[in-house]
Amino acid sequence: MEAQCINIIETMASCLVRGGTDPGLAQFLSIALGVLVVTLLPLILVIIFIWLERKIAARVQDRIGPNRVGPFGLLQNVADAVKLIIKEDITPAGADRLIYNAAPVIAILSVILVWGVIPYSPIHIGADLGIGVVYVVAVGSVGTLAIMMAGWSSNNKYALLGAFRVVAALVSYEVPMILALLVPLMIAGTMSMQGIVEAQQGMWFIVSAPIAALVFYISNLAETGRAPFDLIEAESELVAGYNIEYSGMKFGLFMASEFLHSFTANLLFAVIFLGGWSGPFVQQVPALGFVWLMAKTAVPYLFTLILRATIPRVRIDQMMAFNWKFLVPVALVNVLLVALILKVVQELGLSPSPENATDFVANVPQALILLVANLIMGVIVLNMLRNQGRRERMADQARMLRTVEQDKQIVPSAAR
Amino acid sequence: MNVVNEWAFIGVFMAVAWVLPAAPLVVSWIFRPKRPNAIKMATYECGVETVGDTWVQFKVQYYLTGLIFLVFDVELIFLFPWAIAYNQLDFFAFGAGLLFIFLLADALIYAWRKNALEWS
Fold first, then answer.
1. Tally of domains in chain A
2. Residue A336 belongs to what domain range?
């Protein structure tokens, strides 16, 4: 019995009750401690993320990056935070003060709230809500509200234009994101985050739903304002976008929320498609689940960082067209395809039964069929894209040729 | 933990989570210099003096995008229960899903044909 008290977060309540505390109070204390841990975790980690991002962006651009403050420049962000705190904070004349000041806090809040339902290990999770995925989507969208609040209340045309753009883009990219989420939900048969991870004990969903994973990843890039979709802060076009009037720590909070959001999106990707905490020895040492989760998150996250440093920005019309004319139709068809295959596999008796759902071999037939179907769909979609691209290039060439012909006709007559 | 506790956690979480990001703002408010003047407070628009009101009419395209999104978002919520229960349903569920997603796609095609998706 004593051994149970080692893992305080899960068993603190029962241990306190045994020590003579009121059960209700004990329950509340354990919840409060859990909340504190889950809230502090992202705020501490974000300092490391920003350092990592600056280092990697620097390496891609053949620079060294921060290397003076602390070992490997690790304390650079702490120094930056101190600088931001002692900076004068300017509220522009004519700003809507209440909304202006609330916006940065809400921006961070929307990201932190997502961490409450992330399963860190088989037993460590803030709250395993039955509707975890809907909660994540709902809370994540509050960040859009914060951006609109910031842009609207700043009393600045650039800020407002930036906010409009961002909101239009974020709101649009939410549609393919939710559609892509439907596919793993369909295979897992649950919306609880812990349930989704447990459903992947046999087979990661990235194998059985690669197209959904890709759509989810791309729309997450857009949702978090990452290159090539970083129109949110188009420095060259909108000076800075929605946060142009912010200074000091409020600007710092917006920046921190952006970095945190990007990491959180990849964390969700790891939980939903890469099997979350599942890995070797995780049942014996649950804390190891956190290490596996972070290791899995690092893969898409590093990819995001490298993308940011290498890819140019798209225009707003291209961004919207890519979403509504490509991602949404692809995601819709993909949902139907997976639904059909799942049902056919089930009718054929190839799907894993509930008893051996965590067995790798039992999952292989269904996953293999889904993978092949996804690949076929991918090839067809790429082919359609190629043909469309070729048609447009041909039309462009024909137009150019016509212009040249016209020029030829004009020049001799002018010479005459 | 039971269901009530899960939501109690979220409740406490929402009550506490905004305090931590707000804390640096308070610290900053204590330590930062406060010397405002009219020019410092002026709206920053590339150094040129601001012309007219900021809260002006905006492009109708944003409004259309909002409308299309609303259609999709409301309908997508109805797909969640379908997706969750899908493994336990018979083949008819696929037909129902097909019909529903066809209606979604129909709205998209309509918007597309009406040029509501063109950003110009």
1. 1
2. 87-378
Instruction: Look at residue A66 and tell me if it is in a domain.
Output: no
Q: What is the pLDDT of residues A45-90, one digit of tens each?
A: 888 888 888 888 888 888 888 888 878 888 888 888 888 888 888 8
Instruction: List, in order of start, the domains of chain B with CATH numbers.
Output: 3-113 (1.20.58.1610)
For residue A164, the chain B residue with the least C-alpha distance is B62
Residue A265 pLDDT more than 80? Answer: yes
| Own/partner long-range contacts of A406-410 (Cβ < 8 Å, ≥24 apart) | none
DSSP labels, B8-38: HHHHHHHHHHTHHHHHHHHHHHHHS-----H
Structural domain contains residue A41: no
- A298 domain-assigned: yes
Helix ranges (DSSP H) in A311-352:
316-322, 328-348
CB-nearest to B28 from A129, A248, A346 is A248
Q: Is B32 in contact with A87 (Cβ distance < 8 A)?
A: yes
Q: Is the pLDDT of residue A194 over 90?
A: no
Q: Give a yes or no: residue A351 inside a domain.
A: yes
Q: What is the pTM of this model?
A: 0.87
ipTM field: 0.87
Question: Which residues in chain A touch residue B76, judged by CB atoms under 8 angstroms apart?
Answer: 175, 178-179, 182
